[in-house]
Amino acid sequence: MISNLPRDLAEEVLSKLPVTSLRGVRSTCKKWNNLSKNRSFVMKHIAKAKAAAKNYHRKEFQVVMMIQYRVCLFSVNLLNPSIDSIGKLISLDDADRVDISKVFHCDGLLLCITKDRSSLVVWNPCSGQTRWIKPRNSYHILLDRYALGYEWKNKYSLRSYKVLRFLDNYDSSVNVKRLLREFEIYDLDSDSWKVVDVNPDWDIQYHQRGVSLMGNTYWFSQEKPPPLVPGEVGGDISDIPDFLLCFDFTTERFGPRLPLPFHAFYGDTVTLSSVREKHLAVLFQQCGAYTVKIWISSKIEPNAVSWNKLFLAVDMKPLTGFQFLVSGGSFFVDEKKKVAVILDKDRGKRRPTRNIAYIIGKKGYYKQVDLGESIDAGCWPLVCSYVPSSVQIKQAAPP
């Protein structure tokens, strides 16, 4: 039987399998389950996956998508446009019964927020390691924002992974509005939360998803409007300063306001994405104007950013006839092929609604790829780049 192969030969054969096949490998027999968790095997498997991912001229590449509360690996071919599910990544604990509502990527690790927003888990899909994180007091179901990053521990590039949780909103669930402000960091090394003192003069909308680059997380942010004076009519909130904001996980501080290559008004769509985990891409679509514009940074640091000239501009009115919603528009770009892939829903007359990948490029290039039925109208498809990682998730000490 193939399960009786010598260890060296079995390791060589199994290391050629895609990451999504490891779930089946581990359920085949106890011997293969132990082998697939061996560090030698994991390193060999990851080295081959990274070599394939760095092939810049490849026809296909892989991304992680969250669709219908499931996290899956997809193969993307932009020459003959197709986006195909390769399969589920290695299971979370009881993954077939765990619904995920948000996913964030950093250095090969995923931070997953459960659908009921009551639990967090840091997950290495390649090794199958997970770390469920208990709240310091409790999680706020509706208003929490999260980010995953790391601190550079020393000159040998050892990294300490951390989770940022924050909320800064008025709670409208009570008769008298009260300010909820909590900023705290969970350190995976020490298995502990600590409170961070932040008094922000900026606001990050709940639907904005931060993007991690080189251990730090960036958000589209706006200046916080002044508080209303009782009896006075509120001022115009449609035209307030906007900027890029970074949280530095090494200093555990938010950086200065960084410039954007545009100015957004209320109702405009703005989303962020990473490019080869070295640069930041920003998508902007003005409300009612339909044209999608995308820029890519030439330099990005917690305290400084500069932008290349406009990467792509496409008028979507004759193509889709609608604006990507502010809560949608998750995207990624292929620099070489000069195209962008934007995930959203089909908001035409078809019922039921479908999840769609809109592929746009220069000179009117436009394709659609159907990603399947959208069962839950409130679940927007999300995408992030992914390269398998050998990072070992430090486990919490037993109580």
TrEMBL record:
CDD domains per record: F-box_AtFBW1-like
Domain of life of the native organism: Eukaryota
One matching Pfam family: FBA_1
Protein name: F-box-like domain superfamily
PANTHER family: BNACNNG10540D PROTEIN (PTHR31672), F-BOX PROTEIN CPR30-LIKE (PTHR31672:SF13)
Domain annotation F-box: ranges: 1-46
